[in-house]
Description:
Blueprint: H1 6-16, E1 20-24, H2 28-41, E2 45-50, H3 51-57, H4 60-71, E3 77-82, H5 87-95, E4 101-103, H6 110-126, E5 131-135, H7 145-150, H8 155-165, E6 169-172, H9 189-199, E7 203-205, H10 213-222, E8 224-229, H11 231-247, H12 254-275
Parallel strand pairs: 1-2, 1-8, 2-3, 4-5, 5-6, 6-7, 7-8
The site of zinc ion has 5 residues, from loops.
Amino acid sequence: MPLVSSKELLEYAQQAHFAVGAFNADSMEMLQAVVEVAEEERAPVIVQVSEPTIRYAGLALPAGMVKIAAAEVDVPVVLHLDHGTSLEQNAHALRAGFTSLMIDGSRLPYDDNVAVTRQVVQMAHAAGIPVEAELGKVLGQGVSPNEVRAAMTDPEQAAEFVRAAGCDSLAIAVGSIHAMTGREAELDVDRVQAIARCVRLPLVLHGSSGVKHESVIAAIAYGVCKVNVATYLRQGFMDVLRAEMAACPDEVDFRKLFAPAREAAKERVREKIRLFGASGRIDGHGGFRSPPTLRRSPH
Ligand SMILES: [Zn+2]
């Protein structure tokens, strides 16, 4: 299928109470792992490209690969810019055919975050492309619990922010940390619920690799519709790659070592897609299955 926009997809996920997996495609192998499993699971998927990957591979090559991979499957695939850094970078992504953008102004003072998000939204909406923004800060490794708490998203400020900035989805800080290699973080799910009540847009969870499964499931129940996963897939890939290299130290055909590593990444993508409730959402023609109708209470 041609690439699809994240707008209708996240609205569908919001209605049907599941989350779309958003996986970083840092290499051809990771992209193949994500798209192949999405098709096997009949799940929609978001493939995202982040700033470190743009520095590593440029914007055009990953974008071209994702378009081709999407065309080869019959489930919806979104090409998303992860943590866009500026208006200019978002403009480049728009020209390269991205079907979903992000501007991360969360490190800026509040008013500057609103201003830069508004600029990106105006540009993107003119082209019919939705924008994710971030309020509160999802921090990196090595921060204290107090720092994580202090950086969390305030529900009322979030409501004011989305009104002023006009974004289509919102990344929130509710206790997760980027690039965690263990899985011990718990989310402030009451805060997720409070934000969902105030904001009413699809909410996005970053840094999910280090979060306990129960917490992720609760966050999805309360309104998270997109969950980003990167580190957990890289770990699965690298564990197998290291073992293959140790077992075959003289092998020069790296494809022989990458193939089993890609299989390991596939199984981790599958585990996450199922955890998020995204399996089986797409029918045989690439359309959304209608959300289960709510059973009326007998009382
Ligand atoms: Zn992130």
